[in-house]
């Protein structure tokens, strides 16, 4: 077989997403906005086909070493595609209520997902940048999807300006590494940087700039400033998408860059990752305490959770990386479940309500919703025996095994601080005087998603620990 055709076959998930996005775009152009519902389900079908292709495809390098398909990328792609499919489905009732049901929404989701799949399979700085920018350009448009609302336009503009700055920083770092390391290929860089080039000041500066650009995408401190504003201003389904799939993709890309490209400079990047992890955990925990908007609270929660996941990366071992992958899989379910609950927060006129005070006494009017949200909050807080406890335990254990005791201790302290604002939500739902009742749910699919997420995070979810941890360990070993 010709090498080009062999490469295309290896990159089957991206091929499926490319063809699918072009087809849905053409169908949407001809049929107009009335095609939103069928196109959304077509989009979900395409995500499913791409997921099967990722899970069962060949594992090899392609396109002259620019792209690699391995166990690590397959694990992340399945996770990303599942989160993107859920994000597409949960948006339908919201878009129809808001009268902004445009066919471009599933198309943009598909293009963003294509960029994410390229990111986690990147084996070269050039592929990394192309995938990252494809995700970013679609994300800027999604953030400003409600173009007639001032806060949505503001969210899109803020995200675009800060994202452009992060891209410039990333490119500058890539140019420094290329200039002093002599290559943009991860494998070549790894071999080169284990020698005298790894001690070069120019390469260290390049590493710092590359990590800064990637930290922006996972909203780690001090590159987190866009997160609360964008989550609050963007449409709620878009905020749910931002909190899940792009986070997992960017975290996977960061892990691959650190372990593969800069594997010979572990001591250098471990210091950066450790400081960022500590800052993210503490700021995420403290910053959420004074929030009155549920979406801003979840934004700070995502910052704190990124900090916990970075503990596993700082360890730099197979156990640490498998802990990161396990953490992101559980975090995706918890945060998507929480955002679907937020989508149920509508007043009697059907308008979205986002204040924490509107949850007061929810257990008396919507017992099922209150119970599900309580389970998700307890799980996000990491309270055993709920599923959210075990990923934290995994990354803390990896840190202790690597003698990063201070990092583990600060992580435990930050978890205790963060538990306060999660428990505050539960307290409001069960012990405060009732606020006006929410409108009844109008989507059985979203109600089902909430139930699935709550059951997954409940003690029943412990049945999924063994297969999830096993898959994460196999994926982590593919990097070493």
Automatic annotation (TrEMBL):
<keyword id="KW-1133">Transmembrane helix</keyword>
<feature type="transmembrane region" description="Helical">
    <location>
        <begin position="6"/>
        <end position="29"/>
    </location>
</feature>
<dbReference type="GO" id="GO:0008137">
    <property type="term" value="F:NADH dehydrogenase (ubiquinone) activity"/>
</dbReference>
<feature type="transmembrane region" description="Helical">
    <location>
        <begin position="297"/>
        <end position="318"/>
    </location>
</feature>
<feature type="transmembrane region" description="Helical">
    <location>
        <begin position="369"/>
        <end position="390"/>
    </location>
</feature>
<feature type="transmembrane region" description="Helical">
    <location>
        <begin position="36"/>
        <end position="54"/>
    </location>
</feature>
<feature type="domain" description="NADH:quinone oxidoreductase/Mrp antiporter transmembrane">
    <location>
        <begin position="122"/>
        <end position="418"/>
    </location>
</feature>
<dbReference type="GO" id="GO:0012505">
    <property type="term" value="C:endomembrane system"/>
</dbReference>
<dbReference type="GO" id="GO:0050136">
    <property type="term" value="F:NADH dehydrogenase (quinone) (non-electrogenic) activity"/>
</dbReference>
<dbReference type="InterPro" id="IPR001750">
    <property type="entry name" value="ND/Mrp_TM"/>
</dbReference>
<feature type="transmembrane region" description="Helical">
    <location>
        <begin position="324"/>
        <end position="343"/>
    </location>
</feature>
<comment type="subunit">
    <text>NDH-1 is composed of 14 different subunits. Subunits NuoA, H, J, K, L, M, N constitute the membrane sector of the complex.</text>
</comment>
<keyword id="KW-0472">Membrane</keyword>
<feature type="transmembrane region" description="Helical">
    <location>
        <begin position="105"/>
        <end position="122"/>
    </location>
</feature>
<protein>
    <recommendedName>
        <fullName>NADH-quinone oxidoreductase subunit N</fullName>
        <ecNumber>7.1.1.-</ecNumber>
    </recommendedName>
</protein>
<keyword id="KW-0830">Ubiquinone</keyword>
<feature type="transmembrane region" description="Helical">
    <location>
        <begin position="157"/>
        <end position="181"/>
    </location>
</feature>
<comment type="function">
    <text>NDH-1 shuttles electrons from NADH, via FMN and iron-sulfur (Fe-S) centers, to quinones in the respiratory chain. The immediate electron acceptor for the enzyme in this species is believed to be ubiquinone. Couples the redox reaction to proton translocation (for every two electrons transferred, four hydrogen ions are translocated across the cytoplasmic membrane), and thus conserves the redox energy in a proton gradient.</text>
</comment>
<dbReference type="GO" id="GO:0042773">
    <property type="term" value="P:ATP synthesis coupled electron transport"/>
</dbReference>
<keyword id="KW-1278">Translocase</keyword>
<feature type="transmembrane region" description="Helical">
    <location>
        <begin position="444"/>
        <end position="465"/>
    </location>
</feature>
<keyword id="KW-1003">Cell membrane</keyword>
<comment type="similarity">
    <text>Belongs to the complex I subunit 2 family.</text>
</comment>
<feature type="transmembrane region" description="Helical">
    <location>
        <begin position="269"/>
        <end position="290"/>
    </location>
</feature>
<feature type="transmembrane region" description="Helical">
    <location>
        <begin position="74"/>
        <end position="93"/>
    </location>
</feature>
<keyword id="KW-0813">Transport</keyword>
<dbReference type="InterPro" id="IPR010096">
    <property type="entry name" value="NADH-Q_OxRdtase_suN/2"/>
</dbReference>
<dbReference type="GO" id="GO:0005886">
    <property type="term" value="C:plasma membrane"/>
</dbReference>
<keyword id="KW-0874">Quinone</keyword>
<dbReference type="Pfam" id="PF00361">
    <property type="entry name" value="Proton_antipo_M"/>
</dbReference>
<keyword id="KW-0560">Oxidoreductase</keyword>
<feature type="transmembrane region" description="Helical">
    <location>
        <begin position="402"/>
        <end position="423"/>
    </location>
</feature>
<feature type="transmembrane region" description="Helical">
    <location>
        <begin position="201"/>
        <end position="226"/>
    </location>
</feature>
<keyword id="KW-0520">NAD</keyword>
<keyword id="KW-0812">Transmembrane</keyword>
<dbReference type="GO" id="GO:0048038">
    <property type="term" value="F:quinone binding"/>
</dbReference>
